[in-house]
Amino acid sequence: MADRELGRTGPDIVPGDHVCGFYYGEQERDALLQSYLRTGLGGGDKCLAVLDATSPAQVATLIGDDVDVEACLRSRQLEIWGCADTYLRTGEFSAASMIDFWEQSCRTITDAGTYGSTRLVGEMSWLDRVAPPREAVVAYETWADGFAAQHSHSILCLYDLSRVGVGLMVDLLRTHPRIALNGMVMENPHFLTGDEFAAREVTTKTSDARRPDPELRDQLSELRGLLALSMVMTARQREDEIVSLAMTAAPLLGRCRLEGVYVDEDSGPPGHGLPVGIRRQLPGGDRGAPLSPVPPPRTAGTMALPLHGAEGVIGHMVITADEEPSAAELLMARTLAQQTGAALANARLHRRRQAATDDLRATVAQLARTVGELEHRNAIHDRFTRVATGDEGQQGIVEALSDLTGLAAAVEDRHGNLVAWAGGEQPPSDALTSAAERADLFGRAPTKARPIRVDGRLLAVARPRADVLGVLVLLDPDRTAGEPEIMALEHGATVLAMELARQRSVADTELRLGRDVVADLVGGDPEAGSARARALGYDLDRPHRVVIIEQPGPSDADELLTAVREAARSLGASLTPGASLMYLPRAGTVVLLVAGSVRGGGDRWSDFRAAVQRELGSRCLIGVGSVCRRPADFARSHHQAELCTRMVRTTGGSDGIAVYEDLGIYQLLSEVTDADAVPRFIRQWLGALLDYDTHHRASLVLTLSQFLETGGSYDSAATAMSIGRSTLRYRLQRIRQVSGHDLADPDTRFNLQLATRAWQTLRLNAAGPRQTATKTVSP
Question: Residue limits of the PucR C-terminal helix-turn-helix domain (predicted)?
Fold first, then answer.
């Protein structure tokens, strides 16, 4: 009969089997019990167990969750008896009493007709405590063999090899047709039927050979050696070490030779690990078909004994013999193969479990890292959320970033100006980005989703839309910043972009609303302007000035407005201490209301013009009106600012700025109330020259004005008019001839200069605002 694998897929111990289960220690005993009972209960068999050192609770644990052991105990599908109530109920072992117990129990089970098959198990570990007569054990086991075959019951007898002597083991081998070792059920070549055993007993009693024959003793000794080797192999975790140990058992195989152990890979048909030359020597191997896992018959030649694992055949042990091996030799070979297969399967299982453990550890480590990252991300999110909701502004952002990273942090505007700083007393000289670095950063920002490292700094741009509004800088001179710090920087840049977008939105809203206020005030409707200002909470009772910024030539109103706003923001209080600003953009110009502690002249307007020109990258003109102390004054100040702007545009002043209070005689002339007095004075002194210019399309009056404004310098006047000295001399001679005035006389020169300035003032007043489109441009 073929060997069967105990407790695996397919048949194990079947009805009619009487099996002697040998084991070393509780672990092997529990494995036999678990497999035998789980298969029976799962298959609906009646299970009757007489156990010595195992409680029902332990049995439930052994069988596991696949079977409801408590339900089986309640229904009596599973019965568990102790040896004190069965084997040793009289204090000593009685074969007759035990046989009577089994027969009565099985008769009751059969009469009930509930179960189709019955599984019996008896644990004999009590033998070392109560030594029964040899004849009683032999009679008991001989009866059990016949009883199992007659009633189709399966019987598993459990013997601990550490408690069984050689003599009893001989008897056990002769009274059990099959033996179970390490999960394998095998045929027993030493088994004797009841008649054969009785005849041998008679022969033994009438001869001098009253002890077991030496050959059987040697085989039993070798079998014990194999079992000890099995324990050593099972303790190994490497397959090559197990194979090496198995090869050391070759002398135990008698006339059989151990040629090698060949282990299959984890996938593939059984036997694919065998060399091709050996496969061809085996039945069916020359056709390349998978080898049968059934052991070969007892014939001379080459045999491939299967190595069984939990998932089937995992390899083969190749044995050769010149003669037909004996049953004992074949048993030793099969036992060695069985033990080797069990050890290899255990090592393979350990390897898989170790791999699974390593994977689990890696997963746990990754999970821990993920949890840590999530906690860090949450800490970042919570901190910056508090900054955003608490209206802490840009300073709060850099302080949060510095606290989260332990590094210094800064915010720069798009021009490289330091706006906020945290993490040190004073920013180092190289903290700010250079113009070239900003240009490179802004160029790479649309294609770079992550911060960019520049030397010892990490830079992240704040760009809520297409425009870059600022840069968040994390100083990392030692390059210690890792993913957590970069994550904090990215989150901070997002919050900064939101903050700057909010500020821009507020500024744009204020600009849109303020534009209407300015339009009403400078347009001559102070009541409407005042009402709008009050609705905005804007104070018009403070002193103000109207300032006009003009970009000569073709211009972009949005670009000019942006330049004016950025320039005003960069100068801040230095423009007008305590000032607030309101804008009215128009094509080519921006009308600006400057509030606060204002004064007429000074370097502040030059600084403001220089800042605007830096933003624009081109020239601009500025006209500043006089102080407004009530809403009705804004129209006047606006008119004055326009006059100043036209004055600068017409005269070409070198500084490009005109402040109304600094116009001198021009201011006086523009404020004369008698409308006819000034034209009469001009006619008195310049009438002949004006008529000459009109009739001859000349420019004698303009030449005279420029000559007098330059203090009578020929070189300066010629340069200002872009003409040569000879041309200038010719024109001055014609002026003397046409007007009859002596240009060398001081009084004459004074009156002529006053007349030319009055002529310029009337000319500018008559010209009106710059002749450009007047539509209002959205900021």
Answer: 700-758
